[in-house]
Amino acid sequence: MMNGCPVRAVPLNNDAGPSVQAKRTSQYPNDIAAQNEFGDRHSLIGFSLAEVLSNNDAGDSKQEQTVHQGHGQPDASMTHANILNDQGSLSAQPTPLHNFLPVPTDEMITGASLTDEQTEYFSTTDSLGTLENAILGPELDISCDSPKSLLQAKNLLKQGNWRQVLGINTGDLKQVIIACGKAAAENDIHTEVLISELRQLVSISGDPMQRLGAYMLEGLVARLSFSGSKLYKSLKCKEPTSSELISHMHHLCEICPFYRFSYMSANGAIAEAIKSENFVHIIDFHIAQGSQWITIIEALAARSGGPPCLRITGIDDSNSAYARGGGLDMVGTRLHSVSASCGMPFEFNAVHAASHEVYLEHLDIRPGEVIVVNFAYELHHTPDESVSTENHRNRIIRMIKSLSPRVVTLVEQESNTNTAPFFSRYLETFEYYTAMFESIDVALPRDDKRRISTEQHCLARDVINLIACEGAERVERLEAFGKWKARFAMAGFRPYPLSSLVNNTIKTLLDNYHSCYRLEERDGVLYLGWKSRVLVVSSAWC
């Protein structure tokens, strides 16, 4: 625990020191069998970018607004206003809606990522009952203002009249979840009563709201106990192995198509921007296993006129090294293997650092290269002025602009949790992940152990971080697309429309999924989500 944050990070690669190291690899591997085992959240549907690279007219004209077939009216129950109106005496200032309705151009609708921050994990070998007991019990001590306040709250529970006092219907899970957040924000005497009630209503194998409620409960208890140590000791949890974590991330991409399709849209913009170039330098600020670049390498190698010389700079910190089961050299070896099999000249530059530690000298910029930069689910982890004396978020964007890149791709979750006060952030987390858990619910049975493990290892940690942590330890600091748009515009960027060819391919592929998935293309930006809620936005800049 650091700075009062009740969520502890998993011990990571001890060899990764605090200093930034840059290392280039140039040897081709002799054995790539082990590398082919990789499957990560950068996995993409196998589709060819060769058509993009050979289509000289693609992307030359502005695309008209296209809405995915099956787009219905927004689900009114998903809005802040309706959530709060259902709560009787509960009230709060609503945050902007995250939906697919037309919105002002300069204030795009707001919509946790996948991060590589490691928290302690539940054992994947435990039974559902053991896991549930670990999360939901035993009762934990939550301090109130005073013994008198605690006694009053317990008396309310015994008398059963606290529901009348708070205007909560018996068994109404949504009301209880919201009331818990409001009570925690206000240090209300009813907090313990509400936490006890919530514990009875949630389940990691229940419906989407019950499952989300279980993880929100965990975050609340950790927040209220300040250290959260008793909670995590009761979990008796262990970290998953690297291969297990990679498997969970890969599985998340399989059951949540908006992750996979957002990478596809970014790759389409990149392929179109470099289709005629001979020297290309891709800078990836969160390379993970590097799987995103396999389709790019294969497409470039197959283009008419021969392949270019490709150089990739991969940036990642020790958290991702743990997830990979090794350092960035492993990624370089893998990509070298793919390039060699395609007959394409390739070089890999490894930068062992978090995004906010990166400066120009680490990027090894060379004359004559066309530069491409990829920000996929990473910039929201970069500190801004709200948590750092230096606004690294804006600094990184300005630094990249100074390189005059051909294209910059930005993929981010559509949510507003960066500087919001606790209760607003709590409501935003509830809305966003309700849609996320609902979308997962249609993909796998509720008692599917793969689903449970994926939610625990890839989503629960983000929910807990959003609720339990503050200050520098709260790394899930998502911003709405409107805010990202303003940051890029202030740095001198202008929009670069995504590839209409690739977007049409995504639309076709999405038809194979549940009808509640939504895709909308507006002003060259791709919005992906569930029902009326935007979950991921993919854009490009130049």
From TrEMBL:
Q: Where is this region: VHIID?
A: 249-314
Q: Where do the segments described as Disordered lie?
A: 1-26
Region: SAW, residue numbers:
468-542
The keyword Transcription is assigned to this record: yes
Q: Please tell me which stretches of this chain the record labels as motif VHIID.
A: 280-284
Per UniProt, which keywords does this protein have?
Transcription, Transcription regulation
Transcription regulation as a keyword of this entry, yes or no, is yes
Q: Where is this region: Leucine repeat II (LRII)?
A: 330-362
Q: Name the Pfam families for this protein.
A: GRAS
Q: Which family does it belong to?
A: Belongs to the GRAS family.
Which PANTHER family does the entry link to? OSJNBA0084A10.13 PROTEIN-RELATED
Q: What is this protein called?
A: Chitin-inducible gibberellin-responsive protein 2
